[in-house]
Amino acid sequence: xxxxxxxxxxxxxxxxxxxxxxxxxxxxxxxxxxxxxxxxxxxxxxxxxxxxxxxxxxxxxxxxxxxxxxxxxxxxxxxxxxxxxxxxxxxxxxxxxxxxxxxxxxxxxxxxxxxxxxxxxxxxxxxxxxxxxxxxxxxxxxxxxxxxxxxxxxxxxxxxxxxxxxxxxxx
Amino acid sequence: xxxxxxxxxxxxxxxxxxxxxxxxxxxxxxxxxxxxxxxxxxxxxxxxxxxxxxxxxxxxxxxxxxxxxxxxxxxxxxxxxxxxxxxxxxxxxxxxxxxxxxxxxxxxxxxxxxxxxxxxxxxxxxxxxxxxxxxxxxxxxxxxxxxxxxxxxxxxxxxxxxxxxxxxxxxxxxxxxxxxxxxxxxxxxxxxxxxxxxxxxxxxxxxxxxxxxxxxxxxxxxxxxxxxxxxxxxxxxxxxxxxxxxxxxxxxxxxxxxxxxxxxxxxxxxxxxxxxxxxxxxxxxxxxx
Lengths: 171, 289
Prior knowledge:
The structure holds two protein chains of two kinds.
Chain A lengths: L2 H31 L5 H20 L1 H5 L4 H32 L14 H8 L2 H12 L4 H8 L3 H19 L1
Helix pairs in contact in A: 1-2, 1-4, 2-4
Chain B lengths: L2 H16 L3 H13 L6 H15 L8 H13 L5 H7 L19 H18 L11 E6 L18 E2 L1 H9 L16 E10 L2 E10 L2 E10 L8 E6 L3 E6 L2 E8 L2 E8 L2 E7 L3 H9 L3
C-alpha cells in the first residue's frame, strides 16, 4: 500500500465513521415513509448505504477535492435507494397484497402469484426460510446474522442473490 | 460575500434548522433533494446534514461498535463491488462543487455559513414546508415562459465587493432583460457578488446590506428555456401574493420576517429576498421597468 493509498484510506475511514449514522438514519426514515417495514427497512438501508460508500471509494481522489462531500453522498444514497426499491417493488408489493388479502386490487397482474408458492418453487429450503423470516415475519437482519453466525454483508449478498433468482419469475 | 453578512444570515437560518426535529429535517432534506437544480443546492443539503449531525440523535440505536463493524464489513465485501458501483453511480447531478473549479476551497465553517446564507433564498421557496405538509397549503405552480436569451458568458467577477449599481452592470453582460431594480432599494450598500456554474448554466448571487438588514438577489441563467425547471412552491395560505408588472407574474411572499420575490423571465429564474416589506417589494418590481 502506497503512502497515497494509506492517506486515502484514512480519510475515507473517517468519512465513513462520521457519515454512516446520518445516511443510515435517513435511509431508514425514507424507507419507513414509503411504507416499508420490519427487517426489510434495515436490510435495504444497510445495503443502500454500503453501496453508496462503495461508489464513494471508487472516487476517493476526486471526493477529497470536493466542496460538498456529504451532499454528494446523500445524492448517491438517494439513487441507490431508488434502485433498490425499484428492484424490490414487485416482491414487496406482492407481499403487501398478500397481507392485505384483497384479491382483485392488483394493478400489475401479480396478485395471483402466491408469494409462498413462488419461494417454494424456486428456492432451496434455506433460501425460503431466509426470505420468509425477512419478508413475511419482519425479523431484523442483525438478529438473523447473530443467530446464523453470518456477517451482515454476507446476509445482504445472500438476499441479493435470492432476489436476482426470483426476479425472472416476477417479470 | 462578506462574513458579516454570512453571520447575520446564517444565524437565522441555522436557528430555524436547529429548531426542527429529526423527522422535519429528514423531510426537508427530501424536499430539497427533489427540487430542480439551483445554485447552492449542495450547500443547502450539506447545511441540513451538518445540523442533523449536531443534533446527534440516534433513532435507530446505532452504536459506535455497530458503525465500526459495518466499516469492517465494507472493506471485506462492498469495496470490491467496483463494476456494479461504476455502472450505476450516476447521481442526479454530477458531483459538482458549487464553486468554480479554480476557486480556492473555503474553510468548512465559511462554506457552511455561505451555504446556509445562500440557501435562505431557496428556503423562501418552500417556506413553511414542514408545517405546511398536507394541510392549509396554497399550491402554486409557476410555469416558465418561452423564448431564450443568447447565452454568452463573459468574464465573471468573483468575490470582490461591489456597489449596488455594479449588479446591474454585471447582469447586463448576460442579458438585456430587466432583472434588477433601477433604483437602489433601501439604499443598499456595498457587498459582494458571487457567481458560479452548474450543469444547467450559471448563477449570480449578490447580498447587500441596508439600513433594515439585508437584501439579496439571486439569478439563475439556463442555457435554454427548455432546461428551465418548473418550480413548485408551497407557501402558507394567505402569505402569497401574485403581482403583475409589464405582463410578468411576480410571486411575493413572506417567511420568517423576510420578504421574497420570485419570478421567471425567458431563461432566467430570479429571486429577491430580504428585510423589506411587501409594499417595498412591489416598488422594487415596478422599478424594474
